[in-house]
């Protein structure tokens, strides 16, 4: 049986918010329309809240942390804030580790960073919210490569689809940030515009 807080959240917000709910088993159980029933049809606030929660849970951010990030993006001048918010979320170090396939979930990637297994430009970085930038080298620490945590890493990397803004050297277990994330709106699991509407109400 599918139970637990994460499954309840996913039934409300959609299966894409957690990696473990992006399964056929979960989809079949949720096909009765639970998510649709819980959307507050006709309520602008309800829609905005839903999209904000989807983004927040997808990237594993707390409410205050997510709000501060949105406000920081909004304060930028001459910037497409919709694109800037996605880039700010995607370039977090924990998400970068997840995108590279070093960890199977963002939560696991966050723990990996917290526990000191990741280097940025040759120096240990234990801050999951650290924002990587163009030219940065992200790698698994040399002393960590032989730990049980990474015993199957080579097989996992063979199947991992690496986004174009990252260039991965599978042999060295390191990647270079070679651009900025570009994710089409139709590939996102949330509506960025509605998120800003929520905080601007």
Describe this structure in words.
There is one protein chain. The protein is α+β, with helices and mostly antiparallel strands. The chain is built from 10 helices and 5 strands; from the N terminus they run ααααααααβββαββα. The chain has helices spanning 5-13, 24-30, 34-38, 44-59, 63-74, 81-90, 93-100, 106-114, 153-159, 192-200, and strands at 118-120, 123-124, 137-140, 166-169, 174-177. A 5-stranded antiparallel β-sheet has the order 2-1-3-5-4, covered by helices on one side. The protein is globular and about 50 Å long. The chain starts with a helix and ends with a helix. 28% of the residues are buried.
Brief overview:
The protein has 201 residues and is of the alpha+beta class. The chain has 10 helices and 5 strands, in the order ααααααααβββαββα.
């Amino acid at each position: 049986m599918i139970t637990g807080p994460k499954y309840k959240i996913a039934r409300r917000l959609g299966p894409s918010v957690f990696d473990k709910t992006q399964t056929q088993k979960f989809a079949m159980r949720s096909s009765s329309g639970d998510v649709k029933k819980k959307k507050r049809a006709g309520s602008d606030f309800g829609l905005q809240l839903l999209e904000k929660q989807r983004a927040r849970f997808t990237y594993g951010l707390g409410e205050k942390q997510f709000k501060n990030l949105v406000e920081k993006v909004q304060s930028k001048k001459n910037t497409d804030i919709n694109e800037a918010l996605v880039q700010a979320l995607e370039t977090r170090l924990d998400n970068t580790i997840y995108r590279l396939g070093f960890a199977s979930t963002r939560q696991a990637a966050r723990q990996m960073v917290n526990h000191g297994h990741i280097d940025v430009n040759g120096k240990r970085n234990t801050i999951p919210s650290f924002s990587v930038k163009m030219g940065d080298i992200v790698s698994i620490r040399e002393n960590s490569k032989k730990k049980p945590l990474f015993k199957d890493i080579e097989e996992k990397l063979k199947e991992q689809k690496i986004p174009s803004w990252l260039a991965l050297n599978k042999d060295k277990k390191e990647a270079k940030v070679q651009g900025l994330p570009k994710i089409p709106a139709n590939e996102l699991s949330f509506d960025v515009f509605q998120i800003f509407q929520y905080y601007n109400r």
